[in-house]
Amino acid sequence: MADNIASWASATESLAVGQVSLGPSATTFDLYPPQVNGCPVDSTDSVQYPLRIRYNYDRLPADFFNQSSGAGLQRWQALLPPLAPGLSMGEGGTPLLADQQLASWAGYDGELYIKTESSNPTGSHKDRLNLCTVSAAQACGAEGVLVASSGNHAISVAGYAARAGLFCIALTSESLATASEAWLHGYGATVVKVPTSFKWPALRQLQTATGFHPVSNLTDSHTGNPHGPEGYKTIAYELVAELGRAPGSVFVPTGYGEMLYGIHRGFTELMRAGVISILPRLYSCEPQARGPLARAIAGGVPVMEVDAAPTVAVGIACRVNGYRGVEAINESAGQALLVSDDEMTSAADQLARRGLWQETSCGASLAGLRQVASDNAIDNAADGPAVCIVASQGVKLVGRREHATSPHAATWDELTWVLNDHYSLEL
Q1: For site-directed labelling of 334, which of 248, 346, 407, 408 has its Cα 20 to 30 A away?
Q2: All residues at 6 or more sequence positions from 375 whose CB lies less than 8 Å from its CB, including other chains
Q3: Alpha helices in 140-282 (DSSP H)
Q4: Does position 355 have pLDDT exceeding 80, yes or no?
């Protein structure tokens, strides 16, 4: 590790003071290096516990949350790990869209808002996380970063690594989508397709061989980089600032549960500061084909591993949950939902018809709302607005799944026939 570790970090306005285990011991550690292998005190062979960042809340200005909205996470620097100067690309400040047509489709008679995380610089929510993880890599003096992902995470890491001037090695699946592959190469990443069974062993071996900073999980039960989920807290900050009050419920497409947990952390800090008086209820929305978080909560265990059943929700198709998600659901009195491929696809189609073309995975949040509304499990009037998070642009699906091909016409007769036959439009 570099002798001047975090020399620039000490000059930021961050109130971060260390890391703390989410395991039973709540053992504390220095802020650097990030404990990427989980808590060395609490973790066992069967369960690895993640860590979170600690802050000196006593030094938080009383008016901290009274800030104007806008892009860039630096305005929240006090409650984030130190951010590298010049690394931000204006992430955050994503649109929050009221949509009563989608609410009606979901059978929900309260206010519905769609938080469009796909508007971030590299097209997904992962930019909030990777501003923090790549900042940590720079603080530790790493010359490069390592990522094992075939989608949003790899693309985001590659983008921030490029901006930081760091080498990026991305290990992807052999079914990497054409659009994602082009995006990665555009950022100058070193991309290698490997079998899924080799991906994480290879990542661990590369960390040892190169000394590069891992921004993907290294453990069997997901712990990840402790600095990353802190970036997701800003979604909660923005929601309260934009709505002028706390939402009643937030529906989150969920894989390992890092965004879910980060949003919950943000709400707990807002309540600690007296900005809100009650925690919004969080709903994790996972593919029914897998759903390790829902099954872990149902079984009363910290982590659950499931079979790798096929699902269209490739962006959130996880075989094991992270413990962070368990905490978020339990502490917010929320619920872990399982939605089918058909439900997600139908919801994603509805989003697209409203101008929001998203990955199919993103349909999970709207499908989750529809499921809860149909069960009359949400008090629309008392709970306040519902928010569905949509996280990634649909263009990233290109090359991974089939899309409808458009018909051809070379004459007026052919054109009128096509419009009538294919689109039921009579001229």
Answers
A1: 346
A2: none
A3: 152-164, 178-186, 196-210, 233-243, 258-272
A4: yes
- Cα angle 375-285-194, degrees, rounded to a multiple of 5: 155
- Rounded CA-CA distance 218/222 in Å is 8
Q: What are phi and psi of 92, to 5 degrees?
A: 85, -175
Q: Which of 13-17, 241-245, 397-401 has the lowest mean pLDDT?
A: 397-401
Whose structure tokens read 């490029």? Answer: 162
> What is the CATH class of 85-427?
alpha beta
In this predicted structure, what is the pLDDT of residue 197? 86
Strand 16-21 with 51-55, pairing: antiparallel
Check pLDDT > 90 for residue 72. Answer: no
pLDDT at 195: 87
C-alpha to C-alpha distance for 15 and 34, rounded to whole angstroms: 16
End-to-end CA distance of the chain: give it in Å, rounded: 70
Provide the 8-state DSSP code for 107.
T
Tokens in use for 372? 């809860």
Least Cα distance to 253 among 168, 146, 139, 351 occurs for 351
Task: Identify the DSSP state of 212.
Answer: P
Peptide bond into 287 cis (omega under 30): no
What is the per-residue pLDDT for 7?
64
Q: Which pair of structure tokens corresponds to residue 115?
A: 């938080």
Q: Using CA atoms, how far apart are residues 35 and 363, in angstroms rounded to an integer?
A: 33
Contact between 14 and 76 under an 8 Å Cβ cutoff? The reply is no
How confident is the model over 161-185, as pLDDT tens digits?
Answer: 999 999 999 998 888 888 899 999 9
CA 68, distance to chain mean position in Å, is 24
Helices assigned H by DSSP within 165-257? 178-186, 196-210, 233-243
Q: Say how many C-beta atoms besides its own lie within 10 A of residue 208's C-beta.
A: 8
Better-scored residue on pLDDT, 6 or 323 = 323
Residues 6+ apart with CB under 8 A from 290: 306, 307, 308, 309, 311, 317, 318, 319
- Residue 383: is its pLDDT beyond 80? no
How does pLDDT run across 145-154, given as a tens digit for each residue? 999 988 899 9
Average pLDDT, the chain: 91
For residue 415, give the 3-state DSSP assignment.
helix
